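Appendix B. Chain record.
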Amino acid sequence: MQRLALRATPAVATACYPVGVSGRYRYVFDFWVSGEDREALESGLPDEPDFRLGELIGPEPLAKMVAEGHFDIDVTTADRFFAFGPSLAIVSVYVPEYVAGVEVAEELDFGSRRTRIECWRYVGRSGELLTVPLTYALTLDREILPGREDIAALRKLWPELPQWARDAYKLSFEELSDLDSGG
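Structure tokens predicted for this chain:
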């Protein structure tokens, strides 16, 4: 499985925070697997030691999701789960579609007030993994709503993107139509 390191892992790990600063991390993955792909996924995942979504949501709920062919994950934790993106890349080995999930990372100060917010989309395709920053908005209740890909960041990442990602992003975002497809 090839993994692309298109951007350094976001610098939001709790171990990097000053003493007294903590974090909150939300992981969202909503993905349907068709019947014919579900069989390959069910038989292949047990042999994938780096597939660790069970550590995030528990082995029983994960087994049920795989059996039903619907990953429906929306969980918030106090610790960063670094295996989220790589686990999505593993799922992408067994299905023909892109596999995408979102991570929302919040840095909190002593009073549990947000001091930084970062949102990332992890996109897996055939075992490759992209990590792309997202825009976000805050609701009146201060809930974080991840948005679309950050166009300025995509422009900076463009030379490093694989051809399949360039093609997909040019089709999705008119703002990128001036960029060379890199073919």
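Further analysis of this model is presented in Appendix C.
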